[in-house]
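Hey,
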Amino acid sequence: MSGALLLARDLRYAYPESAPALDGASLMLRAGELVAVLGPNGAGKSTLLRALAGGVPARGAIELCGAPLASYAPRERAQLVALVPQGLRALPELSVERFVLAGRYAHLRRFAPLRDADRRAVRGALERLELLPFAERLLHELSGGQRQRALLARALAQEARVLLVDEPTAALDAAQQLAVFELLASLAREGRAVLVVTHEWNLASQFATRLLVLERGGIAASGTPEEVLCPAVLEPLYGARLLYGRAPAPGGTGQRPYVLPWAQLEQR
């Protein structure tokens, strides 16, 4: 398991008076990887991301860039790992540009003025997420999809080596969904490590280097799209009404599996 930017062993966590949300989950994430985490609702996927970012006090071991996660001060940790949540519980009264600028806090000394590097990082993130025309708008003036892109832009401005992304396509149309996964894949190719929680099996199949399936807080399956998106793995979790096929992979690199829920298939 050497060479991992992020390494977790036997993570366990339960919310008060609830069944375990994490129950022995282990994973490894290397630079250059885009790993997708799949699984039913309530499987512990979001809790896993929060634990890996240090936001949930899970038992077990988490190493970030070869050192225990707990050994980092919050600012040091934020320079290495960025968490992109599903959404915001409350919308701050900030412009999009100021919101994205908040991703630079880990790189700024207290009360220090902005540097050229900070301005370049923010502008680059806004451009990459196609938000530059909305830079002066308040967050509450954006659509749900635009706010989701603003969350991604803030994480890009953070310039962390590890990105933990929770359902980034939930409020996006089909074209934007593809654009987000293309972005995540390009960030991985540039040397980041990206872990993304998603219910979009077919986007994960096209762009992820590896898939993990979480079930009841543990890793139920891990492997390539071909190894994971198959009846033996999916039907125990989702039932038999699934239609399997293959389609061309991005860039003409062979084919990848796809899976569709299909109402008229008989239970087998």
